[in-house]
Amino acid sequence: MKYMSVPRSVVTVTVVYTVAMFWGVLVMLGCLVRMVRKGPKAFFTWNVLEGRPRCLDSRDLGIHGYVRLKRSGIQLHYVRAGDDRKKPLMVLLHGLPEIWYSWRHQLREFKKDYQVVAVDMRGYGESEKPAGRSAYRLEYLVEDIREVIETFNTFSHSSCVLVGHDWGGAVAWYLAMEYPDMVDRLVVMSCPHPGVFMKYVSSHPRQFLKSWFQFFFQLPFLPELVFKSFDYGGLYASLRGRRMGCKTPDAITDEDYKAYKYFFSKPNPMAVTGPFNYLRANFGTIPLVDMHGTDKVTVPCLLIWGEMDGALDVGMGEMSRQLAPNMTFRVVEGASHWVQQDNPAVVNTYMREFLQPSN
After folding, report:
1. Beta carbons within 10 angstroms of residue 125's beta carbon
2. Where is the signal peptide (predicted)?
3. What is the 3-state secondary structure (H, E, C) of 70-103?
4. Is pLDDT of 287 > 60?
């Protein structure tokens, strides 16, 4: 692969961990304040959600299955809707902290026209969770999805519509650069082109502050503890909280939230550490992208952004045009970072317009 992770320099390690420890101190001070208010017992309470939520097995979402990857040996879980293998393939890649279920609205919407496969990325949901930070390096994530595409494609289709959100979007960007012949159309949500992120953060202090968690998650153990504290308060804050959570009432219902908590609360320590290792394995190790030509995404691309994204500025999406000349950029009014769940009707409409043969 062209885009292989590279070792961090001493300077990079020093800067990253200095900033990480700064944020770690601030986060712990916040936790201490909450412990004073709610008590230490509440802080150290995290309950395993017993009983599989029924929504995970809703028949209209598709059929559950597993694929054993030949290159890595890892088994990935997926849900497939639209059982006609002659239909074009659409592959859906979720972000952090999500699972395949974040694509429930798109599975229902596009199964009539596509063979839609929503994947649990390695480390998530019902997919296997390899131990160790290095198992989550970018090149392994890209190769996982490359093999998924090869597995579900038939002799009549050699490419797919690739859709990614958040970290799934990052994998989708890189796969489109590395293997453009495998991607017929690219749809990315809430994730800038990889060549934009560091450039934008370094020139926009507001985004640097928004990116605090990228540094904080470099620390061992503490991010997991904070995420699980107050009965998985970090998960709740991410998906349903005032700052980061969905803005549309009931975009993530109680039952939907249980679907996420069911997997993140599993006793397996990698249930949380695996997803967090995406940040640890790749932050500061991904090679810089050429802003002037060789790393441009040439396939037709749709980039969708929530107007009220609490993690990433809309300006990142605008800047991504520099590296995706065939890009259409859409902003969903009033939507959060979880745009495909916050306003699925608008997102699906934008996708349908983009996927029309005339486009």
Report:
1. 26
2. none
3. CCCCCEEEEEEECCCCCCCEEEEECCCCCCHHHH
4. no
